[in-house]
Write a structure and sequence with these properties.
The chain is mainly alpha-helical and 420 residues long. 67% of the residues lie in helices and 5% in strands. A four-stranded parallel β-sheet has the order 2-1-3-4, with helices on both faces. Strand 3, helix 16 and strand 4 form a beta-alpha-beta unit. It comes from Noviherbaspirillum album.
Length: 420
Amino acid sequence: MCNTPASPLLSRNTLPSFDKPVGSARRRLWDLCTHCHCPVVGVCLPLGTLRKILSRFLDGRSALGDYESHTGAVAACTTRNPISNALQRELDQRHALIVRQYRNIKSAEELGRHWSEALQAGDVAGAFWAGLTHGHCNPALEEQMCRDIHMLQHQAGADMRETRNRVSLLKKENVALAEEFQRAQDKARRMQAEKTEKLEWLETALMRTRAESIAKDTMIGSLQAELDEMRQSLPDLPNRLQLREQNMRLQERIALLERQNAVFRMSGAGLPTPFPEAAAPVPFAERRIVMQDSGMPTKENAEAARAALERKTVLCVGGREGNIAAYRRLIEDVGGQFSHHDGGRQDNIKQLDTSLAAADLVICQTGCISHNAYWRVKEHCKRTGTRCMFVENPSVSSLSKGIEALSASAAEDNGSGMNG
């Protein structure tokens, strides 16, 4: 099966001849058929070990290549010589465990079964050597084992080529994956740098915010301490502030009364003396609400106002809290019933609907109410036809003018109804 050329080692050295052993249970390497030497040397011995054994017999000459080492060892195995003896010792030592296991085999059939099991398991080097050198290995089993090794070498070659192709593909895939991995690493480094920069910015902003918060807390504490100190030094400060506010309201009222008094003085100087009613005192509330745009009061307008507002519920929406008492006196002096809603600042906005439903007249001071209250008043008066006057300035004089306008409008409506 293997045409082996003459060994260069044997041709360069004179080897002594040895007789075959007699009565040995196992066969030696040189006892095997020549076609068994090639697979034994190629399968059962690694190529490095073979070169190491042959290097001892080269006498300093140039090293042999792999093919020359294999063919020289195969040629040396045909007879017993130092090279074959060295190969025999190496093979026995390398596969000593399998050789000892095969000693208990008593027939060629059992030896064949062990060989088949080893062939299926894939561990054939030791089994091939132990099986070929076993005493019960007949020529048929020997031929079968060599054929199996031959086909196994073909399969190994095909597997090797497929493995090389797969390795080549894996190398290309590895290069592509390495490039992709490098790109992913670069992207991850950029993202990490961005995250680090953002984190540093956030930490700086957090420190700045904490510093500002500490500064504000310090300022609040300082102001609170100053306030406590002022309260301790001026225990009657709230009362003083309240009195100051009342004083300001009284000053406004005095100024208004002085202006009205001046107007009445001027108007009273021009009245004819035969009319005693001109000298009759007119209640202050009536004089205030019957002021016309020209500033000239008339008794007829005062009485019309009383007739229009008497026993009527007048709802005042909004206004200053300190003027509520003045609003109430102004309405009640002409016989009306006063009702008030602050326009949603403190009072519940839902209570406004109830107050609107009970009102006959509505005065809405737009400068002191919420948007929600304004639209509720406007929608209710439009829907129900309730008289309404919108006043921008939340002063007592503005409320007086609003009442005057509502009274005049009510008087006109009553006059047109009587004429009809």
